[in-house]
Design a protein that fits this description.
By secondary structure, the protein is an alpha/beta fold. It contains 8 helices and 11 strands. The longest helix has 17 residues.
Length: about 230
């Protein structure tokens, strides 16, 4: 069975109604992204950051997977699929995908701001000032913010380096280190980028195919192509 690795970004979640900050000049639901999605922003105003993620969590709870998510689950019938996502929502889980690596954390989890190994499910979709871990430290969203390391990056690279097929969906390929995953794919692997706006690549990538579509229609096209090819 061929190893198929999928990197998904905000574009696939946008079709389920979850907004992306890069479409609005760095604003996210009216918030400056560096105020609510950076470690410096957390230290400046914890209450604002918690309120922002409480709002996002409630939006995500109501969101449903779209045809793009569902088609990726369908690929598991014929391929060994690993999904690496930059998204913090659980839409891939809701669609039933089994092997998912969340590069930037999970919206429905809280973690200790003192000991990052202490992770808890979020109760009632909210984390508030005064909610503490067992060591007495304020809980924060289990999200990788700007200015923080990406702890799941090494595991993601381990999958990409053995991929027979690499598919990139709905990402601008400008947020590093995730954007650099394409460079780890074997030269002889088949690669696809699915996005209405094909990103500009600075290095030539062998065996690269473009599907200039949004995720829902683009993944359906990919599904048909792969089933006809393999």
């Amino acid at each position: 069975m061929k190893k198929l690795v999928v990197l998904t970004g905000a574009g696939i979640s946008a079709e389920s109604g979850l907004s992306t900050f890069r479409d609005s000049g760095g604003l996210w639901e009216g918030y400056d992204v560096m105020q609510v999605a950076s470690i410096d922003g957390w230290h400046r105003n914890k209450k604002l950051v918690l309120e922002f993620y409480n709002m996002r969590r409630k939006q995500s709870a109501d969101a449903k997977p779209n045809q793009g998510h569902i088609a990726l689950k369908e690929l598991e019938k014929d391929f060994d699929v690993t999904i690496i996502t930059q998204n913090v929502d659980d839409l891939h889980e809701k669609a039933g995908s089994e092997n998912i690596i969340h590069l930037h954390g999970k919206l429905n989890e809280a973690k200790s701001s003192f000991d990052p190994s202490l992770i808890y499910p979020v109760k009632n979709n909210e984390i508030n000032i005064g909610d503490k871990c067992e060591k007495g430290s304020q809980l924060r969203p289990n999200i990788v913010w700007f200015g923080e390391a990406v702890p799941m990056m090494d595991e993601a690279i381990m999958h990409v380096v053995i991929a027979d097929i690499l598919v990139i969906i709905g990402t601008s390929l400008v947020v590093y280190p995730a954007a650099g995953l394409l460079d780890y794919a074997p030269d002889d692997s088949i690669k696809y980028i699915i996005d209405p706006n094909i990103p500009e690549l600075y290095n030539p990538i062998p065996n690269l195919n473009f599907i200039p579509e949004k995720a829902t229609t683009g993944v359906e096209k990919l599904l048909k192509e792969l089933k006809n090819t393999y």
